[in-house]
Amino acid sequence: MRLKKGPPDFILFISAITLLGIGLIMVFSSSAVTANVNYGDSYYFFKKQLLWAVIGIFAMVAAMKLNFSRLHDFAVPLMVLAVVLLILVVTPLGREVKGSSRSFDLGFMRFSPSELAKVALVLFLAKAMDHKLGKISSSFTAGALPFLVMAAIICGLIMLQPDLGTAFTIAATVFFMLLVAGAKWSHLGVLMLSGIGAIGAAISIAPYRMERVMAFLNPWKYASDEGFQTIQSLYALGSGGLFGMGLGRSRQKFFYLPEQHTDFIFAILGEELGFIGCSVVVALFLLLAWRGYKIAINAPDNFSRLLAAGLTTIIVFQAMVNIAVVSGALPVTGITLPFLSYGGTSLLFTMIVVGLLLNISRYSTRT
Amino acid sequence: MNYQRLFLFMGLILSLFTALWGRIFYFQVIRGEEISLAATVMRSQRIELREQQRGDILDRNRQPLTNTNTSTALFLSPDLVKRDIEARQKEAPGLTETEYYKQLAASMAAVATGLSGENVKAIVQAALPQSHFVMIKQGLEQAEIQHLTEAALPGLVLAPFNERYGHEGFCAHVLGYTDRSQEGAGKSGIEKSYDYVLRGAVGAPQMVSVVDARGRAIPGLTGKLQASGEERGAVVLTIDRRIQEVAEKAMDYRAERGAAVVIDTHSKEILAMVSRPAFDPYSVDEAIVFDGRSPLTNRALSSYYPGSLFKVLLTAAALEEGLVDFDDQYNCSGQYVFNDQVAISCLKKEGHGLLRFEEAFARSCNPSFIEVGLRLGRTRLLYYVDKVHFIDETLLGYESIAPGSYVKIDGGAAAMGNASLGQQGVMVTPLQIASLLATVADDGVWAAPSLVKYTLDQDGHRTPVPGGERIQVISPSTAAQLRLLMEQVVENGTGRAAAIPETRVAGKTATSQTGQMTSEDEEALNTWFAGYLPADKPRWAIVVMVEEGSSGAKNCAPIFRDISQGILQYY
């Protein structure tokens, strides 16, 4: 198959680079205080993030330059690699932080296999669904079920770490890919119901989860313990007002808001840059979503269409959940904000996703 | 492949993002100000810089009479301690709370001895629900402050701290005292009468500093002393703090037991009111139980025999009735004989011999005044006692006091004679004498003395204490004559010791018998000096009374002199 190669999607590129830039500034601003106290170097996190950003840009360009027609060849090897690494990370080889084992410590850097797994799974599912496209819309067992099993294995491995947030993102992405691939509404409905049922069951068997839900419903009442993060996050957002307190002038980053440079970086952004700053970031993500799904719609074949839709969903969904958590619309789940949150592997794969989307955009059938 | 669904999903994403955007708008813009304020409060540490959340009692110039003692105190923040425990446990998971508290207690040991780990734990746990700062120790020494500053223990804060009273008992009899609770309940004095005003006052100073979650000040944001412009919930007295200080100093220097009152002769406002011995408002129970001198009694409002000071009233009545003239001649043999059994002696045992009324007053000749008293008679005397409000107990702005003053004269010449000398049958307070002097100094106009000017309630409303009616109780000419007589007392009579170089003063000495024996087995004498200054244009009347003295000239006139000179420093 020969395809005409066009220019990559410029708007997507600009949105991604802008988000990356904002992210770098915010990582520095939000982490400087804790970095100084804990590591004696205000630039500690910023320097690492900057390095990863540079690596990420190269990775993005590389992903963009990959041979489009050979993309599906990566699906199986990457999937195998991801599964192996996901297994290894919960062994003593993984690095344990706060009771979870989510990354390998490679000395000069850390690597989180679940970031790889997200991209690998989307790639793998795109390839597999492309092959079975006809069956997805007819039979549940021959169509949707194998993908669900695959996704369940990956999610299960990630839950071993445990990392509920990432598992949730993956589940949602798989659901959406099935939806786009043409699964029956009845099947999707059953899936959704069983998902809700599973969440309900998970909450009812573990009282601490119930407390989290209660804290989420009424954070002010639980301000000192379970609702603490949400409250501190809302304090940060609210303090920002329309124009923000000014870059670098967050008060909440002085140890009040935990995970201020990772999961809650958006709250610090809201505090320092106000509603205006938040709106810019939200707009950039919307722009990204629009271009990403547009790339999917205009993709030259079903594989790249599913791939583009899945990859876009990973970023957009994560962004949405993160902002929802920060603004108290969802319970605290531990999901980072793509581009902005501190975290090397996450940034690297986000940039790879952007690269892949740009790659696909060059073969758009319509402009 | 389903494009429709892709569009559908895009629409879903778009609407969800829009909803989130709206939610952010709600928190940042609509509720922004409110949340911002709450966040600021959350990040601020507030330390009550006062022992009690109670309004101030102020002097006439709005200088505080309470909360003037400031020392550095050590506070403990239960929240910060709790956070520090959590942080430390993250670093060293083996650390138990018990161990932590033990360490904390040990590091405070240099300053606050006798605190065990359990004590500190109990303090923290008791204070956690209200997250109040707890004061560990007040009145820190310089070395202790340095030690604590260097140790920089998390959860411990140093701040200036106001004690409500001075331990020396400044103005204690007027102010009264409160119980030791945080809120404070007035137990006596102004504290009790105006408890409803002083309780739960607003605008008390607090230290506010913006801190990080570990309780350390955020660099560049220093602590602020916060107090609203006008303190509300305050009582403003007529007392002048400077004059009160002068009077207390003078009394401390020269008298063990007694009282002094300074009153504005025209406005009848009390400028100073001292009673000795003083008491420590922080050790009231000890004072009651162990101090046999009844230090809590306000002697300025207690009744005594006025002795010769009664001659001022007697003379006023006699002058009003036209019964005496300055040039009338009296013959003093050293005693006044009523009959075979009863005779009253003069101060001068050998007698003054022939003397004019003016001289009799200056020298306080007893037989002469017994004669005046008998000439005036019981009924007319009692009429004037009433008319000049001699035993009026009104003290504006102060809760009804019961000093038990009276003038009761039995029938018979001897009783009348005794009463004329301000002994048996006459009991008045130093304040009542001050009021009488103010009447004389004010051309015979009487008005009830006052102690409180106004109150400021919590809402900032000023409620003045209404002044009393001004009544002409003796004629201006009688008052003028009395002033001439009192000037003579200081110029060449018994009160020469009261004279000061700055200005001419006038007054009257008195020494009264109490009928009680001192430890040296002599009859205890209460001594007085009551006067006013400047003699030409009186502004201040001063009454000094010293218990167990030898004479008014010796014990009280010097105190009068000290107070007068102290006042003139300021005016």
Biggest sheet architecture of chain A: 3 strands, antiparallel
Number of helices of chain B: 19
Number of strands of chain A: 3
Which CATH architecture of the largest domain in chain B? 3-Layer(aba) Sandwich
Oligomer class: heterodimer
Strand order of the largest sheet of chain B: 10-9-23-22-21
**Beta-strand percentage range of chain B:** 15-25%
Radius of gyration of chain B: 33 Å
Average pLDDT, all residues of chain A: 85
Q: What name does the CATH topology of the largest domain in chain B carry?
A: Beta-lactamase
Strand order of the largest sheet of chain A: 1-2-3
Summarize this, please?
The complex is a heterodimer of chains A (367) and B (571). Chain A is built from 13 helices and 3 strands.
Report on the architecture of this protein.
The complex is a heterodimer of chains A (367) and B (571). With 367 residues, chain A is mainly alpha-helical. Chain A folds into two domains: 24-65 and 222-367, no CATH class; 81-205. Helices cover 68% and strands 3% of the residues of chain A. Chain A is built from 13 helices and three strands. Chain A has helices at residues 10-39, 44-65, 75-89, 113-131, 133-136, 140-160, 164-181, 185-205, 207-217, 228-240, 265-297, 302-326, 344-361; strands spanning 94-97, 100-105, 110-111. A three-stranded antiparallel sheet of chain A has the order 1-2-3, with no helix packed on it. In chain A, helix 4 packs antiparallel against helix 6 (140-160). The two termini of chain A are 20 Å apart. Chain B has two domains: 69-163, Penicillin-binding protein 2a (Domain 2), CATH 3.90.1310.10; 241-284 and 297-570, DD-peptidase/beta-lactamase superfamily (Beta-lactamase). Chain B has 19 helices and 23 strands. In chain B, the strands form eight sheets. Chain B has a five-stranded antiparallel sheet with strand order 10-9-23-22-21, with helices on both faces. Chain B is α+β, with helices and mostly antiparallel strands and 571 residues long. The mean pLDDT of chain B is 86. In chain B, helix 3 (78-91) crosses helix 5, helix 4 (97-108) crosses helix 5 and helix 12 (310-320) packs across helix 18 (476-492). The termini of chain B are far apart.
